[in-house]
Each structure stands twice: as structure tokens, then as C-alpha cells.
Design goal:
Structural class: alpha+beta
Radius of gyration: 32 Å
Helix content: 40-55%
Strand content: 5-15%
Strand order of the largest sheet: 8-7-6-9-10
Number of strands: 12
Oligomer: single chain
Distance between the termini: 104 Å
Length: 570
């Protein structure tokens, strides 16, 4: 009996130590799992969510210390009582999760060994039996070392746990078991290999046949049955192959940029899963790193699940010089256990992953695309102008009242601020922006991509576009910047056409159109229309005037050459 108790005691102790250490390696990840348990859909104990990290650290340290205490025989009776209470609690928790299918992974062994709810429950039942066996055979547990020696071991274990826990909180987990570890290519992680097992579903079709319900089960095909169809329920029979990375996307304003950025070399990604919960003292370090990266030729983006209002607030307060894109919060929490955190990627492969405390460890070399002349103070000022330039314009373009209200909420604009004369409010902003832009143009010339990067190089032109009486004054400056490759010639061409149309003159490139109630869209008259497509091609347009007219006015429309004399009749 003594040998059996000794073997079980060592086995249970080692299991608790391993389980506790894996979770202590990633206490932030375990705290996310606790928050999942505390959610309204599971235990409905949301009041504990703010304390999840502290509880996570406490639980894993207790678990690990109890494992050591069991092996060395430290205070046998209190240790066995604590082990029994802990395993009873976790057995209840895993049964609740499995039976009600609330939490798909208990987090018992972190990301190192994901278990299904029923696997977790079965494991806890076995442990409960073993601990009960030890509990009723307590007299056969022989302590190791002297009383003082056992106390030293427990104290050293406790201090070691605290030190290790503090280290991984201030940096990142020492051992990374997640799908986004260093060396992984995200695109390859999303691929499904050829011949992989496919998911199998049962479809339960419900019919009303003469007042009674009839259910027919198929694996997809619609069954032939008499009666009225009521509905269908889907049941997963076989899960099929799920790639390690299956929910990673990068989006902004309804567009998907995932493939673009996963094919971008020399990419720095700043991750802040929730800006409202971010560690604000990390952003000055992030700003220093990203400014250096931009000057050395790296592409820098941010990923967050927060709304545009929170993003703009962060950019204003911290003078951030890069744009944010949207990614699901759970994915961002999985990628890096720091808020903010840092990734260095090259064509989708993770080269480095760091806590903001270790931002200086990110290796940045001077690339052939380096922009040593980049003026980040000016770039930040222009980006701020751009946000105000677009403050009310999205609302002005939306006619649906419900959508306008939702859009205003997303932009962080109070209801009293998006009612009334929005054009008047926007024009006041445009006037203020124009004064700043005129000063910049007079002092720096045109702030092109070599000075402020892309897409910030378009902001000065956009502000002038919204103040059209200034176009003539700066048109030559814009043309010079386009000739030097600082801004796209297509943008300058469209601006010149706009100016010519406002002067009631013929445009050059055919970019401007008008609309009337009686005659719909029409392309404003073009000078020398027979050679317009050559001018368009020289300016960088990829479509002919005929193709442009079709895109603008519909596939059934065709380009019609007009003269200025025709405008009066239209």
C-alpha cells in the first residue's frame, strides 16, 4: 500500500506542477479563460472579470505549490484538503462546461495541450479518484526532508513562482505554444492541406405532416416529404480539419487587406486588442520604435478591435504616425499577450514578437526604401488635419437617418453635433485646415511621400480640393510634385480638370462629370476629345474615357462628346 500511495502521490504532484507551470508561463492567457468562465453565458459572475489576472496568478501559484507540497509531504492534512477542494471545484467547472457546451477548452494545460470539455472533465474525475485515495490513506504518505527543509523548499517554490510570473507579465511567455509563435508563416497556417478530412454535418429537416411533426435527417440534400416545411437544424458529426490559423483578417472601412499585408516585406505590426484597456505608458516607447521603423523604410500598421473613435483619440494623445486596421479581439489576444504588443513580419512570417517593454529588442536595419528625410512631426500634423477634413463628410454623404446615427456613434460624434447645418460646420473646419496647409505649402513646398510618406502625401492636395478657389494658386506646385513622383499624377489631373470645369472651360483628362435632374450624368466637355485617351494614359489612368464613362454612369451608358455650347441646354 505504501508503494502504491507513493507512486500515486508523485504522479498527482507532478501533474499539478506541470499544469500549474504551463499556466504560470502564460497567466494573461489563463486570465482570458477565467473571463470566459465569468461571462453571463457561463457562470454569470462578471463582477469578477476585473480581477481575473490576479485570480489567475493566485490559482496557478497555489496549484504549483500544492503539487510540490504533496510530493515532499509538507503539512499533509491541510495540503490534501486544499487539493480535494480544488479538484472538486474544477471537476464541477469542467462538467458544467461540457454538459452545457459553454467553454470549448478548459485551459487546464494552456495552449500546450488543448482539451475538449469532456476530456477535461474525464481528467478531473480521474484526479478526483486519485486524490480521494490519497486522502483516505494519508497515514502512508511519508514526508521527505526535515520540517525546516520542507519549509525551505515550499518558500523557494513560492518565491520562484512569483519571480517567474512577474517576468512573463513584464515580457512575454517564455514558451509559446500558440499558432502565432515566432517562425510561423501566417498564410501557410491558414491553408488546408490537400486531402484533409472534411467536416460532416447532419441536417435535421422538420415537416408538419397532418398536424404532427416529422423529422428527416440527411447529410445535406433536401429530403422528399409530404407536409409543410418548418425548418432545419444542423448538427456537427465530424469536425474535420481546422487549420491552426483560421480566423485572421485585416480590415478597414469594409475592405479586406489581409492578403496585401501578409505579402508585405519588412512589416512592423503594433497590436492593441482593446485601446480602452491598453497600457498607456507603453505608447511613448511604441512611438519611438515606429518612428524609427518608418524612417528606416519599414511599413508600419496597427491592429485593434476598437472603434474609430478610440483609435483617433489614441492617435491624438500619443501622436501616432501609422494607421490602424480592424482584427477580431480574440485573435489579437492570441497573437501576443501584451496590450500594446509588437510583431515584426516579412511576407507573412513572424520574425520577432515582443512585449512593449522589450521594444528596443526589435531589430531594425536601414532598408533600401529608407526615408531619412521623413518629417514625422509634419506627418502627424497632416494626419490630424485629415481626420478633421473627414469629420462630417461621411455623415453628409449618408441620407438614411438610422445609418447616420450609427455612423455618428462609430465616429464618436454627439447627436447634437451631427444635426443642423453640417455643411456650415464642415466649411468652418475646411477654412481652418486651409490656413494650416497654406503655411505648410509656403514653408516646405509640397509635402510629398519622401517628406511625409504615403498616404499622408495626399492630404494637402485633398484640403485644396475642398477649397477649390485655391486650386489655381497651387496647381503648378502640384504638377511639379507629381513630376518628381511625390504624388500621383492622376490626382493632380483630376484637380486640374475640376478647376477648368469651375472656370467653365474644357477639361483635359475627362475626370469630371455633372448630373442634372432631366439628363442625368454627363462628362464635362473635353478639349481635343480625339486625343483624350493618350493624355489619360500619360497621366497614369488605366481606363479609357469610354470605360470611365461606363463605370461612372452604368454599363448601358456610353460616352458622348459634348461642347461647352451644349452645357446651357443641359
Amino acid at each position: 500500500m505504501k508503494k502504491l500511495v507513493g507512486v500515486i502521490r508523485i504522479f498527482v504532484g507532478i501533474l499539478f506542477i506541470i499544469s500549474g507551470f504551463i499556466k504560470l508561463n502564460d497567466p494573461v492567457g489563463f486570465s482570458f479563460k477565467l473571463q470566459e468562465y465569468f461571462s453571463p453565458d457561463v457562470l454569470n459572475m462578471e463582477f469578477l472579470s476585473p480581477f481575473a489576472l490576479g485570480l489567475a496568478i493566485l490559482l496557478v501559484i497555489v496549484e504549483l505549490v500544492l503539487g510540490v507540497a504533496l510530493i515532499i509531504g509538507y503539512y499533509k492534512k491541510p495540503t490534501m484538503w486544499l487539493l480535494l477542494l480544488m479538484i472538486l471545484f474544477f471537476t464541477f467547472l469542467t462538467f458544467y462546461s461540457a454538459y452545457f457546451n459553454k467553454v470549448t477548452d478548459c485551459g487546464c494545460f494552456g495552449d500546450a495541450l488543448p482539451l475538449t470539455p469532456w476530456q477535461s472533465f474525464s481528467k478531473d474525475v480521474v484526479l478526483l479518484i486519485l486524490i480521494l485515495f490519497l486522502f483516505f490513506n494519508l497515514k502512508h504518505i511519508q514526508p521527505f526532508f526535515s520540517n525546516f527543509g520542507r519549509s525551505i523548499v515550499i518558500f523557494a517554490t513560492f518565491i520562484g513562482c512569483l519571480s517567474f510570473g512577474y517576468y512573463v507579465l513584464m515580457h512575454l511567455p517564455v514558451f509559446d505554444f500558440r499558432a502565432y509563435k515566432v517562425g510561423v508563416n501566417i498564410q501557410e497556417g491558414m491553408e488546408i492541406p490537400e486531402g484533409a478530412e472534411k467536416a460532416v454535418f447532419d441536417y435535421h429537416w422538420k415537416f408538419d405532416v397532418n398536424g404532427s411533426q416529422k423529422i428527416i435527417t440527411t447529410q445535406g440534400e433536401y429530403p422528399s416529404s409530404e407536409g409543410t416545411f418548418l425548418g432545419v437544424e444542423t448538427e456537427v458529426v465530424t469536425q474535420g480539419y481546422v487549420p491552426p490559423i483560421h480566423d485572421f483578417t485585416i480590415e478597414k472601412e469594409g475592405e479586406n487587406y489581409t492578403e496585401d499585408f501578409l505579402n508585405t516585406p519588412n512589416l512592423i505590426v503594433i497590436i492593441a486588442y482593446d485601446i480602452n484597456k491598453t497600457e498607456w505608458n507603453g505608447w511613448p516607447v511604441i512611438k519611438e520604435l515606429t518612428n524609427d521603423a518608418l524612417k528606416k523604410g519599414y511599413t508600419v500598421i496597427g491592429l485593434t478591435s476598437s472603434g474609430e473613435n478610440e483609435v483617433n483619440d489614441l492617435k491624438e494623445k500619443q501622436n501616432i504616425n501609422f494607421d490602424f486596421y480592424f482584427t477580431d479581439a480574440t485573435v489579437l489576444k492570441t497573437i501576443v499577450r501584451s496590450n500594446p504588443g509588437i510583431l515584426k513580419l516579412h511576407n507573412g512570417t513572424i520574425l520577432q514578437k515582443k512585449h512593449w517593454n522589450d521594444a528596443k529588442e526589435i531589430d531594425l536595419e536601414v532598408l533600401p526604401t529608407a526615408k531619412s528625410a521623413l518629417n514625422l512631426v509634419l506627418k502627424n500634423k497632416l494626419d490630424s488635419i485629415s481626420r478633421y477634413d473627414q469629420l462630417y463628410r461621411p455623415l453628409l454623404q449618408e441620407s438614411d437617418p438610422d445609418k447616420r446615427e450609427k455612423l455618428a456613434q462609430d465616429l464618436g460624434i454627439a447627436k447634437e453635433d451631427y444635426t443642423g447645418d453640417l455643411w456650415k460646420k464642415q466649411r468652418m473646419i475646411d477654412t481652418s485646415n486651409l490656413k494650416i496647409i497654406k503655411t505648410i505649402l509656403d514653408n516646405y513646398g509640397y509635402p510629398g511621400k519622401s517628406l511625409v510618406g504615403e498616404p499622408t502625401n495626399l492630404i494637402a492636395l485633398e484640403v485644396i480640393r475642398h477649397n477649390p478657389i485655391q486650386i489655381e494658386e497651387y496647381l503648378d506646385l502640384f504638377k511639379k510634385a507629381a513630376a518628381q513622383g511625390e504624388i500621383p499624377m492622376t490626382q493632380v489631373a483630376a484637380l486640374e480638370d475640376k478647376y477648368l470645369m469651375q472656370q467653365r472651360k474644357e477639361q483635359l483628362y475627362g475626370t469630371q462629370a455633372q448630373i442634372t435632374a432631366a439628363n442625368g450624368f454627363f462628362i464635362w466637355p473635353i478639349k481635343d476629345p480625339e486625343s483624350v485617351n493618350e493624355r489619360r494614359a500619360a497621366a497614369g489612368f488605366t481606363s479609357t474615357i469610354e470605360e470611365y464613362a461606363t463605370d461612372l454612369m452604368g454599363k448601358n451608358a456610353s460616352y458622348k462628346t459634348l461642347k461647352l455650347s451644349d452645357i446651357k441646354t443641359l
